[in-house]
Amino acid sequence: MALQDRLDKFKKQQEKCQATLSSIAASQKSASHGSANGKNVPPAVKFSNDTERLQHINSIRKAPVGAQMKRVIDLLLETRQALTPEQINQSCYVDIKANKDVFENLRKNPKVNYDGQRFSYKSKYGLKDKTELLQLIRKYPEGLAVIDLKDAYPTVMEDLQALKAAGQIWLLSNFDSQEDIAYPNDPKLHIKVDDDLKQLFRSIELPRDMIDIEKDLQKNGMKPATNTAKRRSAAQIQGISSKPKPKKKKSEINKRTKLTNAHLPELFQNLNNS
Fold this sequence. Notes:
This protein is mostly helical. It has helices at 2-36, 47-61, 65-79, 85-92, 100-108, 130-138, 156-165, 195-203, 210-219, 228-237; strands spanning 112-114, 119-121, 144-145, 169-173, 180-184. The protein is 47% helix and 7% strand. The N and C termini lie far apart (140 Å). The model has no long low-confidence stretch (mean pLDDT 80).
């Protein structure tokens, strides 16, 4: 009886395995038939990819407050749109609602505008186009720093170059900060200078020593861009002579010079007869 029971049990296991194999074969056949009919089966989401995305989001939300603020401000600058905290979270994974420090610092940031519901980028000058840009520059005859205009609107730098090419503004560099300054070039301020005055200006002889030039500038209330006295004293301390090295006198060819290129007489037409 025990042997018969074992045989019956083994037979049932074989039947179960056969049924499993048949169901697998049937499912594969239906999948291939569906793809042949143009039905695309959506690929399964890999757990590893989803884990990587979640780790990326987690690293952003655990970053310092300043780093999270930068991500949000960069997003607002790029989009130039007013976004809700939910939209910001979807775009750059910074959860403003869950992080009170990020929320409060963004609300108080001078580059961010918050109307109670949405955050948007706030430039120093609210400009929209080239016309408003020119109007603003003309209000500052003493000059306007370009760095304060760079984020006014996306094409502001191209418009600055266009206004310069049209002769409507000047773009000059500041000696102290090396930053460009935009000055208005008002046609009403164009002055015609007489030739006699130009000649008088050009006939003024400047001192040969830079120290004397700097002293004259200071006497007239202007700040020199250089400090020659300081540079020379520093050079002396380091053992470097501030005087330019005399140039070596170029040796001239004379009759005593041994000529090795006698077959090229045109090279020696200017021989010194002395």
